Structures are given as structure tokens and as C-alpha cells.
Amino acid sequence: MISAQQVVDLALAEARRLGRADETIVLVTDRADAALRWANNTMTTNGESISRTITVISIVRRGDDAHVGSVRSSAVDPAVIADLVSASQRAAAAAPEARDSAPSLPGGDAPADWDAPVPRTSAEVFLGVAGDLARGFRGPDTLFGYARHVVETTFVATSHGLRRRFTQPTGSVEINAKRGGASAWAGVSTPDFVGVQSDSMLEELATRLSWSERAVELPAGRYETIMPPSTVADMMIYLTWTMGGRGAQEGRTALAAPGGGTRVGEKLTPLPLTLYSDPRASGLECSPFVAVATSSERASVFDNGMAIDRVDWIRDGVITALAYPRAAAAEFDAPVAVGADNLLMTGGAASLSEMVANTERGLLLTTLWYIREVDPSVLLLTGLTRDGVYLVEDGAVTAAVNNFRFNESPLDLLRRATEAGVSEVTLPREWGDWATRAQMPSLRIPDFHMSSVSQAQ
After folding, report:
1. Cα distance between residue 306 and residue 103, in whole Å
2. Above 90 in pLDDT, residue 417?
3. Could you tell me if 74 and 27 are in contact, meaning their C-beta atoms sit under 8 angstroms apart?
4. What CA–CA distance (Å, rounded) separates 242 from 250?
5. Distance (Å, whole) CA 350 – CA 420
6. How far apart are CA 8 and CA 27, in angstroms?
7. Distance (Å, rounded) from C-alpha 48 to C-alpha 65?
8. Are 452 and 405 in contact (CB under 8 A)?
9. Contact 30, 49 (CB under 8 A)
10. What is the full DSSP assignment across 63-121?
């Protein structure tokens, strides 16, 4: 493989030579993966890989109109670059007018580390986790799970001289523990595996399995429910995926206001919660610029390389922002807002254990699974509970209960929440493959809707 920087230079040079596009944007991402798997208290596989994706975006301008062609390849042979550029320019010439057309971003000096080699990772990053697991394999519980570490370095370059580079480390550990017919899950996210306390995860799993020694069958219905940070993250992440300004302005989402406009400015919850994304959030750092291969309602290829700042989507319980790329912001006279690849929400002072201790009777809902949208007009989601729903009585967990299907809207959960606990870095169970950088509080919901009993075990 030639270097990513050489790929950028070759692609831009070929675009100039062909001359069939007014602008060219090149994105190159070099990715290093390491993975570790275990099952039935035995390490099964581990591996390392490196890969590359190259995206060439050509823009053809005809008066006020712009036409975009985006072509992507995972080939590493330099010989493919010329064909990639040519295909991108042909696609742009044949494309319809781009709705998200925006002026070119100005160039500037390349970052100081532009020419530096890209960092890698290896299976050695899992040494601490593997040691804890080896001790856990000798215990009474049967363990299954997966650890991964990905290091991606993305380069963005344009024919106008803009240059951006960012290295994103992403890691997670997920462990399933089984004892008898009971199962429990725990997961953590980490950028570098420093300080990952997998032994504490095993202790927590053992505690949850001990709760399952008593089982209680409950019917469907509404229950006071404590949602730990992982489950809150799964619901709030889906909320932000729907917070495109265009969809709300056009009346297609739950963020549209009755009679027209959006719900920005509406008081959503009496709790002083702030939901935000911030590329510089400590421990959850992520790319501070746009790098997208295709446009969506929340990001535009025309904005590639544009700086991303903190956005407060909800501030002190009030909806304060929706996602607007530059073109949509100009169309709807709204502030430009593009979300970073993380999500955080403030909380309160109570720990999860203190929230349990203050519960007379309710459920502790540890993980969600198979979340799908039912009604976009109110953002009603459905899904399943899995690997641990527990009965709380008189301030203590007393039993495991059966699984349920639930029907809830994250907007409505925020409206009805009566307490928020301490905000903690967490790994969402459902979206953990795509969204590992989250920090959420626990939430107390007085009437969480378990719509039916699930037979899933």
C-alpha cells in the first residue's frame, strides 16, 4: 500500500488532468482492526487486519446548480485511482441537481501531522482483558464475548487546498455470562483499553446472575422502571438520528410542530437535562470536522472539512437545535449545526444503586435489543428486553423477571422521567457497533410501557 497522503495527491492530480469537474474532494480512511472472541470459557479467535477506503467526490457546477458524483473503493492498488476519479466525474456529469449545494470551503495550511505515518493497533491491546477473562474462565459462570479495537485515520482534501486529518481510536468489550438458565450482559467502551476493569464487569455479572436465582413472572403493563445509562443511550441515540432540521421543517418527523415549523424552543422535560454532542468532550473525543462520502439530511458532502463544534440539542430540558448542513440552514434561516460522532447527557447526583434503594417496587431494565421504529410521527420505538430485567422491592433487587416487548418514544420518556442519576460513560447495547462514544445518566420512568410478554430467553 502506498501512503494515504500519496493517494490524495494522485487522485487530485488525476482530477486536474481530466478536467471534467469544477471541484474534487478526496477522502481516504486507513483502518487497523484487532479483535478477540471467547465462548464457553475458552478463547476462540483473535485477529488483526488493515484496510483502506477511498472516496472521490466530483462536483460539476452549472450556473447556480451543482451536480455530485461520489465513488468509493476499498481497493489498495494505486492503479485503481485513475478509474475511480474518472468514474466520479462521469457520475457527476450525469447526476441531477444536488439539493444540498453549497459554496466551496476555502483552503488552508495542512495540519502539522499531515505527513506522519498512520497509527496501528494489535491484539496486544487486549492483554489486560485476556488476563481477567482467564481467571473468570475458572469461575462458576460460562462466559461469551467479544473485544475489539479499531484505529481509523481519515484524510480529507479538496482541490481548493483544504486539508484535514484525524485519528479515531474506538474500542469496546462485551461479556455475556450464563448460569443455569439465566443470562446477563455487560459492556464498556474505551478508546485505548487503558483502565478497562473487566474484572469488575465479571463481578457485576456474577451479582446479576445471583439475582436470577429467584424468578418471577410478570404480565405486560406499565411499571416504574429504572433505566441504566446503556439503555438510555440506546434511546437517545435514536432520537438524535431523527433530529434533522429539514425533516422537521417539512413535517415528516416527530420534531415537526403542529401547524408548521419545528419544536425548537419547546420545554420537553421538567428535569434540567442537556443532551449534546461535542468533538472535544474529555474521553469521548471524535472528529472535529465533517467527513462524509454521501449526503444525508444531517450532513452534506459539500461541507466536507467544515469544523464541527459542540451542539446542545436539548438544553435544560428545552429543545434548542436541529441538524442543518449549510444548504439547509440557508434555506430555512437556521443556524448551521452538524453533530459530532458522540452523544452526552447531563444528569443528577444519585448513583444507580441509590436509585434502586429509593424504589418501593419497580423494574431494573439493564439492556435493550432489536429496537425498531413504529411511528415516525411521534418517534414511537419498539424493541425487546434481554439478558436481565430485575424486580426491585423495598429498595433491593429481589428476583429476575421475564422478558418483554416494549413500546416507547425517547421524546416521551424524557417528558415523563421523574429522576436522573449520575451521568456516566457507557456502551449502548443495541447500537454499540456504530455508536460507542456515549455518556448518559440513569433515568427513572414511572410508567414504562411493557406492551407484551416476550418468549425470548
Report:
1. 12
2. yes
3. no
4. 13
5. 7
6. 8
7. 45
8. yes
9. no
10. TTEEEEEEEEE----TTHHHHHHHHHHHHHHHSPPPTT--PPPP--PPPTTTTSPPP--
Determine contact, residues 66/98, Cβ cutoff 8 Å.
yes
**For 65-102, how does the pLDDT look when each residue is reduced to its tens digit (9 = 90+)?**
999 999 999 999 999 999 999 999 999 999 999 999 99
Of the candidates 307, 17, 47, the residue with the CA atom closest to the CA atom of residue 162: 307
Q: What order of strands is seen across the sheet that includes strand 182-190?
A: 65-73, 42-62, 23-39, 142-158, 163-179, 182-190
Q: Which of 45, 39, 43, 36 is nearest to 177 (CA)?
A: 39
Its pTM stands at 0.96
Under DSSP, the state recorded for 302 is G
Q: Using one digit for the tens of pLDDT, what is the confidence trace for 43-63?
A: 998 999 999 999 999 999 999
Q: How far apart are CA 50 and CA 413, in angstroms?
A: 41
Q: Position 360: which residue type?
A: E
CA distance 1 to 25: 21
Cell of 361: 417496587
Q: How far is the C-alpha of 171 from the C-alpha of 293, rounded, in Å? A: 23
Cα separation of 402 and 220, whole Å?
Answer: 10
What is the tens place of the pLDDT at every residue in 354-392?
999 999 999 999 999 999 999 999 999 999 999 999 999
1: helix, strand or coil? coil
What are the structural domain ranges in the chain?
4-198, 214-457
Distance CA 353, CA 447 (A): 20
Nearest to 309 by CA among 335, 284, 289: 289
In angstroms, the Cα distances linking 442 to 67, 144, 424, 426 are 46, 26, 8, 11
Report the CATH superfamily, name and number, of domain 4-198. PmbA/TldD superfamily (3.30.2290.10)
Contacts of 452 (CB under 8 A, 6+ apart): 220, 404, 405
The one-letter amino acid code at 403 reads: N
- CA 179 centroid distance within chain: 31
Encode burial over 150-172: b for 16+ CB neighbours within 10 A, e otherwise.
bbbbbbbbbbeebbbbbebbbbb
Number of Cβ within 10 Å of residue 394's Cβ equals 9
Distance CA 233, CA 393 (A): 25
pLDDT of residue 57: 98
Residue at 225: amino acid letter = T
